[in-house]
Structure formats: structure tokens, C-alpha cells
Amino acid sequence: MPNKLISMQEAVAKYTWDGMMYAHGAALPVGSDSIAFGREMVRQGRKNLHVISNCCTQQLNLLCAAGAVDKIEIGFSGLEVYGFANGLRRAVENGKTILEDYSNLTLPLRLLAGGMNWPFCPTISSYGSDQQWRSAFHPDEYPATSKIPEITDPFTGRTCGALSPLKPDVAVIHVTMADIHGNAIMLGTEWSRYELSRAAKKVVLQADLIVDTACMRQFPNLVRIPGIVVDAVVYWPMGVWPQCSTGLYDSDEEHMFYMNKMLKTEEGYEEYKRIYVDGYNTIEEYLELIGEEKIAKLKNTTTAHLMDPYRKWIKSDEEIEELMEGR
Amino acid sequence: MCRKVMPMAAAAELVKDGQMLALGGNALHRTPAAYAHALARLKRFNLKIAGAAPGYASDVLCAAGAVDTVYFGFFGFENEYGLAAGFRKGCQEGRIKAIEGS
Amino acid sequence: MDYTRQEMMAIATGREIKDGEMAIFGVGLSMLAGYFAKRNHAPNIRDLTEGGVYGAFPVGGLPWGIECNRISSNAVSFTNAIDALGFLVASGRCDVGIIGAAQVDKYGNVNTTGLWADPANSRYLPPKVRLNGSGGANEIACGCKRFIIMATHEKRRFVEKVDYISSPGYLTGGNARDRYNFPGGGPSVIITSLGILRPDPVTREFILTEYFPFSSVEEIKENTGWNLKVSPEVRVTAEPTPEELENLRAVDVTGALRKKS
């Protein structure tokens, strides 16, 4: 199998483009999303994105604040206990971004349908409520007929909703650890990363750790995203910051609030972008930006024991650099 | 959490005549053979078996005359172990209805 | 009073959950209420969150979210969205769920999606205020055998008709849910910051059945945006017992419910 390790800059340049259907993370709002990848998309000025998002995270919040998003299809658009996502809110309320609502099951079911190449997926949720009747993409239709049309069960004659399949152009998924071939292990809830990895036309992994393939051979049951569905692997430690990566680090409460506050206004966004998006070029500079002390604090997580079985296969930065050069 | 460990015979008693039963594993891999033996001893009737690739455990119940219908994609033992004899005999004698899917 | 209004609300919610039930909790207040029930009187509930994190108990205080490490430290199983919300909830298997509401109407329909300047306009305009969307609450509303709604009792939240039905209650009342073949039975109770509302068995309109010790029927009616009916058997809710408070505070170790009141 080929070595799929590429740099962050390369990955964004090669796998993203203006106007694309971009799927991020498939994480829960405070969970491990590929946020560093989103920062690089903003750095490279991507725009007119159609984003597929099971849940909003700080990545989508940032992309919205950057004015990079035309359309969103989503199950949950807040940041849970951290509050409303201000960047997203601003973009939706001023009409820049059109947001189509689904639920946290019906969005993954649409990915399942896309991955399975089904014509549609039946549903009993997002049905019989305004998620079915109102469509932001078809604002004049009421009740909407093209969003979640009603169908009849051919076996019982009862009715239900039909969900359209989703096949994003590219999915960028955070994983705890990957090998250079794209075999990956995710710690914590899988949420809808499994379905997303099968639905998207191309899959890029953003990994906190690169491990030897021997690790995958030891725990093949846990490799829910195998290399055969993956196109590229990007190594980016602390890449979920300020959110949490189960087993590795907790969410940065202070920065979560700060970032969301900054994204509330255009000026705040510009300031945030200057420091935390444009303010680094390398992984080392990125880690310096977070700060050594902060990183040590975040890594002191009550989930650290989850990493115990895997430590002996972790590649050092030097080894990863060699692997990148040896491609 | 409540404790759920119980003797094999008690677990077998959970299955009643006429119920639909799915047993784990496939063909000769990880089918709950000891459980099937315990259930066969109870002489249940008209069980319906459902599984993608039912194997040894389901075949024991077919051979025991406990099964009247099987919903399956593949029912056999693979390679040199060949066909599932209990299931095959039951079908050929008209005791078992075979509903084939994929 | 040696407890806060939010604590009363969480305890009243927890009391609705019976031992042995399969129960799903949302994030925030509903999670505290649920884990309070587990610790206080329902040690054998089969609790889950929509993330598919099973067998866990929060460590270090209220989790910031469903995927927060505070709820991932001692789980026995991690699965996924389709497992938790699909196999266990939308399927009709889960007994009870707890959801929050930005707006709720007299038939228990919940809005967590947005507020519109002109909600009756059938054209879908951008919302005046964008809220969070339904998340997994829509599945809980469609699939759970019953569900509990928690909401701060204010006139602007308790409205005649919600701007947007994110999670269906009894829709237009009566048997309106039957038209959609939902596996779930609908909302069984609304626990507010002032009291408890339960649906009329026929019309499904929510009526006031209990008021909290620090509130009154008058205060609750004043803070409701529809002409709230009052049950002839309306009564005051039992105060939290010292044991209940102790168990709640053991879950809410950072005092999230004690700060806000």
C-alpha cells in the first residue's frame, strides 16, 4: 500500500476547492473534529463551500465567520454547553449562509444512504415536523415536497419520510492515530465518522498521532476506517484544539469561550484570524501558539488510560519527517 | 448494572416454541455450539432461524427437528466441510421452509 | 430555601425516571437530572447519551458536550450516532428521554431551531435568531416511549404556537401524532423552572398539575403565553429531600445548577 502522508498545506491545496461539497469531522460539537484543517482552508482562502456537518464545531463556526460558507446541511448547529456558535449564527442571520436543518440521526442516515449508494433512506424522524415541512434550500415550498418527501411503505402501506443520500466531494476526518496507509483508530465515540468515511468521494484523515502498521495488526477490530477508503493522511498534533481528542487532551475551556466571542463580530474574527489562523506556518509554531503550559494542562486528561495499549507504536516527529521525505 | 450471568440450561429455557431465533457467528466460525446443544435437549418445535450465514449451531437445531423455517443468505459449512446436513435433510423432507435472501 | 430553582427543576425531572428503564439524556441540565436519578433512586437504569457512550458516569462536573472527556473517562462501550439514536431511540426501544426547549407550545411541540420575525409566513426566510437545531431531540421526540421536556418558564418561551417544530409533541393536539406512525408516545410532562405541566389524556393540551414550593399558580399563569388550564387537583411539589440534594450535588460537582439561580 502506498504512503499517503502529506503536509497540511498540500492536503488543503489538493483536496479542497471553491464551491465544493466539503464534509468535516462527523464529530459532536465539543469533540474531535479536524479543526486544524479548517484553519488551513481559511488560510488558503477557500470560499462558496457547501458544508456537510453532522454537528457544528469550532471549524464550521470559523469557516462561517470567514464568509467561506454558502450552504450547510446539519443536524445540530450549536456548541452545547459552550453556547450558540456565534460565527455560524451571524452568517445565517444575515443571509450569507443558507442552513438546512436535519437531525443527529437523519444526517448520518443520509451519509449511510450515500455510502451504500441507496436511492434514498426511509425515516421516521425529521418527519412530521418542520424539519420535513420547511426547507431553507426551497424557501417558497410549504409544505416542502423535495426535502423529505413522504413515501408509502410497500409492505404495510404506512407512510414515512424519504431521506436523500449524501456523497460529499471530500471528507476530512480527525482520527486519534493512523498509519501511513490510512488505517485509523478513533478513541471515544465514533459518532458518524464511519458512515462519512464511506459516503465521501475522497477521504483525508487528520491524525494526532502516526503509528506503525503493527499497531493496526494488533488491534484490527478497532480499525473502523481502513486504508482502502482513505486518500491522504495529515499529521497534525493537538489538531482538534480547542476541542477535545479523547485519550489525548481535554477541551480548552478558556479558548473555546474566547474563540466563540471573537467570531461574534467581523472585527473579532479578523483579530482571531491574525493570531490563530495566519499566526503560524509549521506544526512547531502552531504548538507554540497554544503554549507549552496550556498543552501540558490539556494533556492531563482523565481519559489518558485509553491510550495505554498503543503507546509503543507511536512514531516520533523525526520518524514522521523521514516518512514524509521518503514518499 | 444488574448481573446477567446464568447457567446454560437456564439460558436455553429463554427460547420458546415458535419463536424466531438468531444465533451469532457464521458457518463454522464462532457459532454458539454449546448453547445449541442445550436448546436441542429441550425439544422445542417450530423455531424460525434468521441469519446471514447460519452455521453449525443452527444446523444442530435443524437436525433436532426444532426448526420449521430458515431465513438466510448462505447456509453451509464452507470448503471441505460441505453442506449443512441437518438443514438440507429438513428441506428435502419438507419439514423446513427455506427463505433465501443474500 | 437551601436549594436553587434549577436544582428543584433537575430533581423534579429525575423523579420522573423509574429504575430499570432505558433512558437517554441530552447535554446540560438534562444530563444532570438523569445522572441524579441514577444515583438517587434508579441505579439500574440503562442510561445512554446520543453519542453512543454507554455505562459512563461524569467525572469532574457537568460535561461540556456529549463527546466531552468528562463523560468518556469510564465508559464500557463507545459506539456511534446510528447505534444510539437509531437502533436504540428512533426504533422505539428507549423508554424515556429528556430534552430542552427554547420555545414550547400547549401541545408540547418544541422549538430549538430559530425565531422568526414573521413565523406565520410560509416562505422560509433567514431566522431573526438562529438557535441550535434539533440535534438528537427529534429522534427522542419521535422514538422514545415517552419524553420529558425541560424549559425555563417565561412568557416568550411558553407560546401558543412555536415558530418552528424542531421536535414534535402532540402537533395540533388529540391524535394528530397518529398520522405519522411515530414509534414513540409523545411528551409525558413539561418540567419548568416554576412547576409541572402534564397533558390532558384526550386533547393532549398541557395543563398545570404542580407548582414548586417557591412559586404559585398565579405566577405560572402570568408567565405562560397561552391561557393555561389548571388541574382541579393542582398541588405543590414536594421539596427536595436532603438526600436528593446530596445526590444531585454529587453529580453537579462544579455547582453549575447553583450558580445560575
Jot down its keywords:
heterotrimer, B: 102 residues, alpha/beta, 4-stranded parallel beta sheet, 4 strands, 30% helix, C: 261 residues, Glutaconate Coenzyme A-transferase, 8-stranded mixed beta sheet, two-stranded antiparallel ribbon, 7 helices
Task: Write a brief caption for the model.
The complex is a heterotrimer of chains A (327), B (102) and C (261). Chain A is of the alpha/beta class and 327 residues long.
Structure, described:
The complex is a heterotrimer of chains A (327), B (102) and C (261). With 327 residues, chain A is an alpha/beta fold. Chain A has helices at 8-15, 35-43, 58-65, 86-93, 106-116, 130-133, 193-199, 213-218, 253-262, 266-276, 283-290, 292-299, 317-325, and strands spanning 21-24, 49-55, 69-76, 98-101, 121-123, 150-152, 159-163, 170-178, 184-185, 202-210, 232-235. In chain A, helix 2 (35-43) links the parallel strand 1 (21-24) and strand 2 (49-55). Chain B starts with 7 loop residues before the first helix and ends with a strand. Chain B has one domain (14-100). Helix content of chain B is 30%, strand content 17%. Chain B is of the alpha/beta class and 102 residues long. Chain C has a single domain, classed as Glutaconate Coenzyme A-transferase. Helices cover 23% and strands 21% of the residues of chain C. Chain C has seven helices and 14 strands. Chain C has helices at residues 5-14, 29-40, 81-90, 137-143, 217-222, 242-251, 256-259; strands at residues 22-25, 46-49, 53-54, 77-78, 96-100, 103-104, 110-111, 114-115, 129-130, 146-151, 187-192, 195-199, 206-211, 230-236. In chain C, the strands form four sheets. An eight-stranded mixed beta sheet of chain C has the order 2-1-5-10-11-12-13-14, with helices on both faces. A two-stranded antiparallel sheet of chain C has the order 3-4. Chains A and C meet through strand 3, helix 4, strand 4, helix 5 and helix 7 of A and helix 3, strand 9 and helix 4 of C.
Number of domains as seen in the coordinates of chain C: 1
Distance between the termini of chain C: 12 Å
Neighbour order of strands in the largest sheet of chain C = 2-1-5-10-11-12-13-14
Q: Strand order within the widest sheet of chain B?
A: 1-2-3-4
List the quaternary state of the chains.
Answer: heterotrimer
Query: How many domains make up the coordinates of chain B?
Result: 1
Q: Mind telling me the CATH class of chain C? A: Alpha Beta
Corresponding CATH superfamily of chain C: Glutaconate Coenzyme A-transferase
Q: Beta-strand level of the residues of chain B, as a percent range?
A: 15-25%
Helix % of chain B is 25-40%
Global shape of chain C: globular
Instruction: Report low-confidence residues of chain C grouped into runs of 5 or more.
Output: none
* Largest sheet features of chain C: 8 strands, mixed
Q: From the 3D structure, determine the CATH topology of chain C.
A: Glutaconate Coenzyme A-transferase
Percent helix range of chain C: 10-25%
Span from first to last CA of chain B? 37 Å
Number of helical runs of chain C?
7
Number of DSSP helical runs of chain B = 4
- Architecture of chain C, according to CATH? 3-Layer(aba) Sandwich
